[in-house]
Amino acid sequence: MTPTISFKTPAKVNLGLHILSKREDGFHELETLFQMVNWCDEIKIECLSRGLELVCNQPDIPNDEGNLVIKAAHILQTRFPERCKGAKIHLNKNIPHGAGLGGGSGNAAGVLLGLNFLWGLKLKREELISMASELGSDVPFFLFSPCAIGRGRGEILEPVKSSVRFYILMVYPGFAVSTASVFGNLKLKLTKRENNISILKNFLLQSEFAQLGAAWSNDLEPVVFQEYTGLSGIKKDMLALGAKGALLSGSGSTVFGIFDNPEIANNAYARLERGDFRLFLAESVVSLSELYPEEMLR
Ligand code: C5P
User: Do residue 91 and residue 188 come from a single domain?
Assistant: First the structure.
């Protein structure tokens, strides 16, 4: 029988995102509080003797080097040509693309973990994280911890040992936003910042959601709200419907709200629904074992 493994890869939201400076390499130095949420894609990998194939439920998703999943498999094959085999990867996409939810980054991280197991590479998590950072700034987080502070490009991680379960209502407005163009349009104001990420982390750990929502900000939000004027209305509506806080996730286009009461969250879901939107009510992930089988995490 062909060895296979199946798992889920989550979305993330940024519970605050501060841009500190522009670097010589063109990237931006930032600090953010990442949180995995259980809006998930599903992946099944079949181990083959050779070759690489990606099959996706969405025909518009590239199935070549344009997809981070293939890039992730290639990085392993290039680094360890003697030890790698082949694979057929089945990807069932639920998380929208260009949404600020890290869906593709999560897929790539899952494939690194899955192939490490199926191909018997026995690479340590730190080695996988180092390869992940070559694939994208958000990819290492998905190998690390369900909640973490990200610094540098986002790849320098500090775990946040949170077991706080809360509800996250995400509104994808029906269009994608390009991360590179948002960062390109950012005009940095070097003002002194009072709300550092550690303060946000403490509000989260104490389940002080209203305080978290009052204190957080996303420096990319004004850039995105200026271009896509309808998004600030979603944020206002979310707050009016009882969210403890609402914010753009990453570089958008998704606006999310946090709730500690599922009934209020469900009511907000029903009231925000519109034909061109995609909504999802998720919970915070508190353990990687909610996503990956134990053998993948060893
Ligand atoms: O690393 P990733 O491929 O996700 O980044 C996409 C683009 O977003 C980069 O090419 C860069 O323009 C921008 N970016 C940035 N600073 C970061 C992360 C991303 O300028 N910390």
Answer: no
Both tokens of residue 152?
A: 């540098």
Distance of CA 59 from the midpoint of ligand 1 (Å): 26
Smallest Cα–Cα separation from 36: which of 166, 130, 127, 154?
A: 166
176 with 153, same domain: the answer is: no
Task: Answer whether 154 contacts ligand 1 (Cβ < 6 A).
Answer: yes
pLDDT in tens, 237-262: 999 999 999 999 999 999 999 999 99
Q: What is the pLDDT of residues 117-148, one digit of tens each?
A: 999 999 999 999 999 999 999 999 999 999 99
Nearest CA to ligand 1 atom 8: 180
DSSP for residue 227: H
Assess whether the C-beta atom of 153 lies below 6 angstroms from ligand 1: yes
Atom of ligand 1 nearest to the CA of 26: 20
CA of 262 to the centre of ligand 1 (A): 34
Tokens of 164: 């706080």
228 lines ligand 1 (CB under 6 A): no
Separation between Cα atoms, residue 52 and residue 60, nearest integer Å: 19
Q: Would you say how long the chain is, in residues?
A: 298
How confident is the model over 176-194, as pLDDT tens digits? 999 999 999 998 876 656 6
Question: How many domains, the chain?
Answer: 2
Domain closes at, from 144, 160, 176: 160
Cβ neighbours of 66 (radius 10 Å): 9
Q: Where are the alpha helices (DSSP H) in the chain?
A: 68-79, 103-118, 125-135, 179-184, 197-205, 209-215, 221-227, 231-240, 262-272, 294-297
Give the contacts of 12 (CB within 8 A, at least 6 positions apart). 34, 35, 36, 37, 101, 102, 105, 106, 138, 141, 142, 249, 250
> Interior CA angle at 34 toward 15 and 55, to 5°?
120
Question: In this predicted structure, what is the pLDDT of residue 1?
Answer: 81
Provide the annotated active-site residues.
Answer: 12, 138
